[in-house]
């Protein structure tokens, strides 16, 4: 089982924050990708997204790059404790932060020198472009998702996954399916995306094939599924094909139960 259990409360803003509730029924799915997400809906707690403050969400996502939630959460808490005051705009406070102090504050997240530089750069960018974290929040929530995405990608240290997470968790935008390492691996193993598809191609396929209201749940539930069943080195079907609840929907690309071998789908023979 995962050591990162579901939170007891809905950590997002729920329907009040712009999230949309969805029905999950594999029997009525129009595509295989939707059937997979519907089955995840039967396996895991369903929740809606949106409502988080956009700049806080951006900082949270930068902290989580290349590390686990377990390591990045204390860094996030320590950062907010030190830099987020009632009468202080978080972007303003971080833009003026001493880099070495910020690095020390977030040290539990790993790569803290690089991340502290990115966070300060991002805070400066938010102040320059929008004037405050609150104005940035309004931009993320009100502008067209494609425009928000394009703008976020201009910032050094912000990649497509970070941009999509901000759109999803802050903006509550339907139709945004961020692709991290789990999502990238699993949908290629399933045979839903081509074996050599890059992150952007997998995202385009999922956003095309999964209804908008189910994309946010699909993202987080796929990550949980990747930790519990379809892990990088030892997918559940390797020893026992019956052990995976997704087996009947899966092509198992790069997984060879006869030999116990697992390769990246891009390296699997056709
Ligand atoms: S059947 Fe195997 S490869 Fe397919 S999703 Fe399940 S664990 Fe992953």
Automatic annotation (TrEMBL):
One Gene Ontology term of the molecular function aspect: DNA N-glycosylase activity
GO terms for biological process, alphabetical: base-excision repair, AP site formation
CDD domains referenced in this protein's UniProt entry, alphabetically: ENDO3c
Organism: Natrinema limicola JCM 13563
Domain HhH-GPD: 63-228
Keywords attached to this entry: 4Fe-4S, DNA damage, Glycosidase, Hydrolase, Iron, Iron-sulfur, Metal-binding
Protein name per UniProt: HhH-GPD family protein
Pfam families in alphabetical order: EndIII_4Fe-2S, HhH-GPD
InterPro entries: DNA_glycosylase, Endonuclease3_FeS-loop_motif, HhH-GPD_domain, HhH_base_excis_C
Cofactor: [4Fe-4S] cluster
Gene3D superfamilies xref list: Helix-hairpin-Helix base-excision DNA repair enzymes (C-terminal), Hypothetical protein, domain 2
Region (Disordered): 1-22
């Amino acid at each position: 089982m995962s050591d990162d259990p579901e939170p007891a409360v809905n950590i997002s803003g729920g329907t009040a924050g712009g999230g949309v509730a969805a029905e999950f029924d594999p029997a009525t799915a129009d595509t295989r990708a939707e059937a997979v997400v519907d089955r995840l809906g039967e396996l895991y707690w369903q929740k809606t997204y949106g409502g988080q403050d956009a700049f806080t969400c951006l900082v949270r996502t930068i902290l989580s790059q290349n590390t686990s939630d377990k390591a990045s959460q204390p860094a996030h808490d320590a950062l907010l404790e030190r830099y987020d005051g009632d009468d202080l705009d978080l972007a303003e406070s971080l833009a003026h932060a001493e880099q070495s102090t910020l690095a020390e504050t977030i040290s539990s997240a790993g790569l803290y020198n690089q991340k502290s530089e990115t966070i300060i750069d991002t805070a400066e960018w938010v102040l320059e472009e929008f004037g405050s974290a609150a104005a940035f929040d309004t931009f993320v929530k009100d502008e067209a998702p494609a425009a928000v995405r394009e703008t976020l990608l201009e910032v050094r240290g912000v990649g497509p996954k970070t941009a999509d997470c901000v759109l999803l968790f802050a903006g509550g935008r339907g139709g945004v399916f961020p692709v991290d390492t789990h999502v990238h691996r699993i949908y290629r193993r399933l045979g839903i995306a081509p074996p050599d598809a890059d992150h952007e191609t997998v995202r385009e396929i999922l956003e095309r094939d999964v209804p908008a209201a189910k994309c946010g749940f699909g993202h987080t539930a796929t990550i949980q599924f990747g930790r519990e069943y379809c892990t990088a080195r030892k997918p559940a079907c390797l020893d026992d094909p019956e052990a995976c609840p997704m087996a009947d929907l899966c092509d198992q690309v790069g997984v060879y139960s006869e030999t116990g071998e697992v390769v990246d789908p891009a390296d699997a023979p056709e």
